[in-house]
Amino acid sequence: MNTGYSRTIQYILRFVVLLAVLGGLGGTASAHEDRHGDREKTTVLKAFVPAATGGVFTDNPYNPRITISIPAGALSADAKLIVKRRKRSRAPGGTLTAAGPVYSIRLKSTRHDWTPLVLERPMEVALATDRVPEHPQLGEVAIYREGGWNRMMANFYRASDSRVLTQTRNTRVRLRAVFRTLQARTGPEVERGRELYTEETWGDEEIWGDFFELHKVLNNVTPNMAVGIGAQVDITRVPQFIVDVMLGDDFAAKQAALDDPAVARALMKADAIVGIRGVYNDPDNPDMMTSVGLTCAVCHVTVRPTPFQLEADADPVLLPIGPLVFGPPNTRMDAGLLLSFTPRVQGGSENVNIADYQGWGPGRIDPRFFPNNPFNDGVFNPSSIPQHWNYLDLAEQGYAATWIGVLQTRPDNHSLASAPECGIDLVLDRNGAWGTPGASIQDIEIGNPLPQEFLDRLEVAEITEPGNELLKQDLLDVEAFLQSIVSPAPGPFDETRAEQGWRLFYGKANCAACHSSGEGTGAEGKYFTNIVENPPQGLLSIGIKTPGLRGLMFTAPYFHDGSAATLADVVQRYTSADIPEVPDLSGDEQMALVEYMKSL
Ligand code: HEC
Ligand code: HEC
After folding, report:
1. What's the distance, CA 327 to chain centroid?
2. pLDDT given for residue 244 in this prediction
3. Where are the domains of the chain?
4. How far is the CA of 296 from the centre of ligand 1 (A)?
């Protein structure tokens, strides 16, 4: 080998490296139009990146528009980083809108051989946005791939400096800041669906009235008792005489009203108690229900609480009286406790199950337990009422409805309409095709996803089963309504911690191994029995899907069995040996993950 020659090469290389480093440090000052007169691109950043140390590189230290952080040891060789801003590019389109310019990022090996340069660990890219996203817009980063803009999975929007962060292991990539709008269906069918969801009982008075005789309990509860078991009041329907008492300053009268069954009855008669719909057929007692039906809203709706001054010198008390909020579950609804007081459970054929009903606890129902239900699995396995939101985005990300994920919702079919049908058939005990009297689909084993034969037989049963009372149009309207709801904007959280948590989620803590989609759901066809401490039993033993993670601040308690009261409990559970994907995490790391989840 000619040593003099190689020394010359080394000398030139060192000189180039020095220039690159200077260029990098210089930031925008050194930005220049590409040679060859290409006005489409401006080089905004050039730097030498030693593999051993990595580094943080930015186009302008005083007002960075793009910052690239490369971890030490992540690169397989020393590299040159070149970032160009493109003047023109195709608009992102779809649910994405541009929120900043397009950057082409390139890492080139400085080694003069053909070994491809590899990022063993992702680099982080922070891009400034040119304005602030407004919910339901989310600040994200999009990548140009296969002729179009696609959202990155790992995104964190930092409100304090209006920057979005992402991670990538591509050494050659084109990125831009975007805002993604959570999709929401609109149209007259949404309004029809909302009406059905909040008002329609589908004739379920047969089970709640005729069978359980629930009205006999409700006729005698006081407002305080009703609130205690999770009843909520639609403020727009409260009779005027109650409004006058509650807003007045006669505190004795207020206390008396809250303990007066006649006040509860007046609220029920006015359809002001969310999801409870009385039947009044006794002319001698026009305010007493002779039967009662329930609507979807009793479990699936919350109200925004209102503060009431109940005592002269005390702080106001928040009562569940307010406007309806669609999406978050009614986690206070203790349907089992309520049912346990009914004549049927107290004295009738169901009385052996009092403890079971009382054991469900607030926010949990066992739809696989109701008497005569074809899916009664004879096991005590109540499940939490899930949230209803982001269904259009979820469908694009391989979401499956119900905790065991047997209903694969897809953008191109109406399988989400089967979820309302489940609610009507299994929870409200009406006769759709699932809960048909002939129960012609009972003999097929349930699996996730549902076997095609099940779906085929379901379709036939829709038409042929006698007693099938569900109108397909009703189900499609309720589906449309469900698709109109998006998750709420996150509440307050500690941004610095949340950012650390985001890094852990996609890095060390390995949460993204399962929560891999944009809304946090998991890969299709993957079901788990080990996430909760007591493995799911009965029909649930086929495994729980990976649920979405948006709006978590509004859905506690967590997991299908409600076994984690707080997000801290969730993360604590993940550090147990039962879940091998997640390593031990320090207390600090756990708290960071909690803050990140609050930001979703
Ligand atoms: C008594 C309370 C209750 C009522 C009433 C009720 N549900 Fe549910 N709903 C639940 C519970 C509990 C689950 C979770 C069941 C499971 O997967 O184990 C659920 C699950 C669902 C799901 C699946 C959510 C998801 O993303 O996985 C949908 C959709 C749904 N219900 C819609 C409805 C509709 C529509 C109605 C009215 C026709 C209704 N529900 C009535 C308690 C209820
Ligand atoms: C092995 C796959 C897997 C991994 C890894 C994983 N999850 Fe989960 N996650 C699930 C499944 C499955 C559920 C539902 C479990 C259940 O309800 O029984 C779930 C549920 C949750 C819930 C509750 C959601 C709700 O609506 O109740 C949260 C929050 C959550 N995960 C956060 C995390 C975090 C944070 C990490 C990383 C520390 C993580 N997950 C790692 C699969 C996973």
Report:
1. 10
2. 96
3. 3-181, 188-359, 495-598
4. 8
Residues 382 and 336: their CA atoms lie apart, in Å, by: 10
C-beta of 403 in contact with ligand 1 (< 6 A)? yes
pLDDT per residue as tens digits for the range 16-29: 444 444 444 433 43
Residue 10 CB-density burial (10 A; 0-12 exposed, 13-18 middle, 19+ buried): exposed
How far away, in angstroms, is 428 Cα from ligand 1 center? 10
Expressed in angstroms, the distance from the first to the final Cα of the chain is 60
User: 366 CA to middle of ligand 2, Å?
Assistant: 21
Give domain 495-598's CATH number out of 3.30.160.20, 1.10.760.10, 2.30.110.10, 3.20.20.190.
1.10.760.10
Q: Which ligand is nearest to the CA of 389?
A: 1
Q: Tell me: the pLDDT tens digits for 316-362?
A: 999 999 999 999 999 999 999 999 999 999 998 888 889 999 999 99
Q: Among 192, 422, 549, say which to mutate for ligand 1: greatest number of ligand atoms within 8 Å of CB.
A: 422
551-598 tens-digit pLDDT? 999 999 999 999 999 999 999 999 999 999 999 999 999 999 999 999
**Cis before 449 (ω within 30):** yes
Q: Determine which residue's CA is closest to atom 6 belonging to ligand 2.
A: 511
Fold of 3-181: Chondroitinase Ac; Chain A, domain 3 (2.60.220)
CA nearest ligand 1 atom 3, residue: 299
- Predicted TM-score (pTM) of the model is 0.92
